[in-house]
What we know:
alpha+beta
Amino acid sequence: MTKRFLQLADVAEVLDISAAQAYALVRSGDLPAIKVGGRGQWRVEATELEGYIQRMYDQTRTFVEAHPFGADTD
Length: 74
């Protein structure tokens, strides 16, 4: 069974970033998450992570279309 919620360490592993970068994504609101438990540990719903990844693909596609490689800048 696939886990519904991921720890920030799991998010960092999926995105191949540091735990600090995963925390920054959550704290900035770019990646929706919840705090759970008495110690308030962050959890990211797997569907939210997939949505974030898709948004990044969309943003990258838009950027590449606006800034084609090798375009004449004159």
